[in-house]
Amino acid sequence: MSIAPSDITDFTDYVFDNYISEDSQFRFLSWAKESKTYLRTTNGPEYFHSNYNQQFYKQHLNHQNVINVLIEIQMETNFLKINSIEKKKILNILTNNRF
Fold first, then answer.
1. Could you tell me the superkingdom of the organism this chain comes from (predicted)?
2. Does the N-terminal or the C-terminal CB of the chain have fewer CB atoms within 10 Å?
């Protein structure tokens, strides 16, 4: 007989099934690894915040500078989305042997 509440067991089973087991949906190696593109961070959000904070090194910023940085970030995001879509299309073509 266990002294742990049943909802704790449910939670630990969920974590194990989704993050730890061999056939889990979100493997540890897929979300917690050092990337060559993310300098000294372990994931995308850390990289984003590090890069974002480096853009604003003055205490009192001009509003236009903040807007320009946000526009640049949005342009980079759109570029990455377009490239990932194109890569998926190419991968699908190659996997289905359609040239």
1. Eukaryota
2. N
Domain hosting 14: range is 1-32
**DSSP-assigned states of every residue in 20-69:** ISTT-SS-HHHHS---SSSTT-SSHHHHHHHHHHHH--SSS--HHHHHHH
Same domain for 20 and 60, yes or no, is: no
Both tokens of 53, joined, read 């904070």
Q: Residue-wise pLDDT tens for the chain (99 aa)?
A: 467 676 788 888 888 887 778 887 766 665 555 555 545 556 777 777 777 888 777 677 788 888 888 888 888 888 877 877 777 777 677 677 554
- Exposure string for 6-18, b = 16+ CB within 10 A, e = fewer: eeeeeeeeeeeee
The 10 Å Cβ neighbour count of residue 98 is: 7
Q: Residue 69 is encoded by which pair of tokens?
A: 């940085």
Do residues 9 and 28 share a domain?
A: yes
